[in-house]
């Protein structure tokens, strides 16, 4: 597969290429779509780990390729199947997801997806994300089922509240925050509440997966102002406005 300079870089880092086939699709809400796919032999080769994700390749209007990453939902190595979920907005990836149906194919690269559950387990898990991060958040909570977690999840649409997470009320404290000021409102909410939750900065694990700008602001805050060790912070910008 040829994917320009991005593809060449991923090849240098031993990225593995696959082709997925869509077997079904469902609109969870008008702004959230789930696709079911066969894996092109990927899972039998690579296995599965928590928060596992793949890079999908899309064509831009200028003819160039670009990739976007999506977390696997319900991967089944024996069947060679999984699902992907798309928080729909403007951009080529969402355009493809809106139209995709049975028989459609898409090229993908697996590289950079490794994640190890923190050892030792933290006393508290802090999760900050938005609807694009729902699959990863679900996988993360399933990987640490007995760890208390406080979650801030940013929403953009009223229907986002219909997207359910499997939470344990005894362990999980969920705060939904409306998206305002391009993520600035979420940053303010977290900064106001998070310090009171942290008794020992070395005994918490913080997972931040928002848009790129918000993720950078929050990662800088928890590392520099709350002194949480770098190895106890996972920060990855999940999306940014796409060029068409």
CATH superfamily of the largest domain: Nucleotide-binding domain of ferredoxin-NADP reductase (FNR) module
Q: Give the overall silhouette.
A: globular
The number of helical runs is 6
CATH architecture descriptor name of the largest domain: 3-Layer(aba) Sandwich
Termini gap: 22 Å
Structural class by helix and strand composition: alpha/beta
CATH class of the largest domain: Alpha Beta
What would you report as the Rg, rounded to the nearest angstrom? 18 Å
Query: What is the number of strand segments?
Result: 12
Q: How many independent structural domains? A: 2
Mean pLDDT over the residues: 90
Give the SSE order as H and E letters: HEEHEEEEHEEHEEHEHE
- Sheet having the most strands: 7 strands, antiparallel
| Strand arrangement across the biggest beta sheet | 4-3-7-1-2-6-5
Give the helix proportion (percent range).
10-25%
Strand percent estimate: 25-35%
CATH topology of the largest domain: Rossmann fold
Which residues sit in consecutive blocks of at least 5 with pLDDT less than 50? 9-13
């Amino acid at each position: 597969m040829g994917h320009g300079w991005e593809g060449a870089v991923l090849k240098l880092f031993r990225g593995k290429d696959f082709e997925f086939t869509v077997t079904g699709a469902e609109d969870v809400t008008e702004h959230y779509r789930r696709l079911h796919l066969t894996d092109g032999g990927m899972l039998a080769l690579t296995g599965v780990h928590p928060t596992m994700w793949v890079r999908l390749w899309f064509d831009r209007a200028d003819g160039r390729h670009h990739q976007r990453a999506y977390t696997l939902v319900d991967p089944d190595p024996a069947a060679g199947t999984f699902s992907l979920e798309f928080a729909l907005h403007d951009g080529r990836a969402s355009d493809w997801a809106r139209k995709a149906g049975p028989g459609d194919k898409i090229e993908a690269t697996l590289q950079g997806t490794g994640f190890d559950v923190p050892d030792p387990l933290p006393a508290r898990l802090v999760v900050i994300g938005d609807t694009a991060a729902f699959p990863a958040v679900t996988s993360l909570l399933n990987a640490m089922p007995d760890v208390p977690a406080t979650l801030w999840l940013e929403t953009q649409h009223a229907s986002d509240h219909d997207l359910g997470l499997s939470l344990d009320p005894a362990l999980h404290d969920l705060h939904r925050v409306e998206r305002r000021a391009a993520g600035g409102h979420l940053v303010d909410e977290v900064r106001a509440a998070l310090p009171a939750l942290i008794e020992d900065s070395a005994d918490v694990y913080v997972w931040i997966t928002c848009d790129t700008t918000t993720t950078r602001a929050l990662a800088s805050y928890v590392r520099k102002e709350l002194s949480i060790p770098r190895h106890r912070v996972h920060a990855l910008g999940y999306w940014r406005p796409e060029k068409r």
